[in-house]
Fold Terpene synthase N-terminal domain-containing protein.
Amino acid sequence: MISACKLFSLPLISFPGKSPKLFPLKAFPSQTGEVQESERLFKKLPPSKWGDHFLSAHVDASEMDTLEREIEAVKPVVSGMIMSSQCLESTKKKILMIYLLVSLGLMYLFEDEIEECLKEGFGKIEDMLAGENDLYTVSTIFWVFRTYGYNISSGTDVFERFKGGNGNFKECLIEDAKGMVSLYEAAHLGTTADYILDEALSFTTIKLESLAETGAISCHISTRIRNALCMPQHFNAEMVFTREYISFYEQEEYHNKMLLKFAKLNFKFLQLNWIQELKTFTKWAPDCADSLPEYMKTVFKFAWNVFKECESEGISEEGLSFNVQGLLEEFKIYLRANLCFAEWAHTDVVPTFDEYLEIGGVEVSMQVSIAGSLLGLGKTAREVLK
């Protein structure tokens, strides 16, 4: 089954070619021997623009179960595609497929298979790239290995083949729009010693900006170029890029329909999973009660303890309390009505008759009183309603 804790998978990248920066530190004894209180000012951040939006967002558990079953059914097929043939040409295709899995947001489902494939491929990387003159293929293979922490060379054995006699990148490369985007993405994974990638970044940026403006390429490739220029894949949020790439891949003439459907199922599953988590985080605020005024803390804690006590007594079918959750929901509605009255008073707002009737009907506490009386009936209420 899909692990809830493995929804992010791209590794942290560390290249031996990049030397760490060292800063000398010197300790000074305190003048007073006492710890001085920090006077650093922290900017007070504004409330989230989302507010309580996710509290009302609906998440269908049965839909998530269905999506998970469909994902689990397809996983063995894709795993077999990664682990199939061991020939050189097949390994090259599998590396390109790994890029697809990363871009479509599916890589976390196949971490072991991907790592095994990359170990095998890196051992014969020179043979794999020998004689390969397709810009997209070479750039994508480079991007995949660098992304997963392999220190693949960028020089003579890789990108020098795309330079002309004048030492600059060949102008004919512009005809391969997808290859140019791939080279642009690869150029963002350079180290301080990868001078050729600095040249590649400058070359591709200028040419891609020109390509996007001319309109000489298909609409979906133009969108892909603009998105890459705005935010390269390496720096983008995984799922933001995945959402963009699914749309791009769907418009590609030769796309794998099974992978595309798989990516959509997975994206929907993760979307629902994260909405559910956001609902939980929005509700989870253990320190909110501490921020209340002292007189409200007493009232809040008393009401909270009453509900918790009733809930613990009414867990079993034979419990003393009945429908604790129903009373709690009615109590929330009642409190919101009181807050609305308080807001009107604080802002000197005179509500219309209809507005007052709607809120005042709740504020008289008829519904919450009825729910509370049913709560105390316990077993008797169960028998009557049955």
The chain has 16 helices and no strands. Residues 257-283 form the longest helix (27 residues). Confidence is low (pLDDT under 50) at residues 3-8, 12-21. The chain has two domains: 61-281, 289-385.
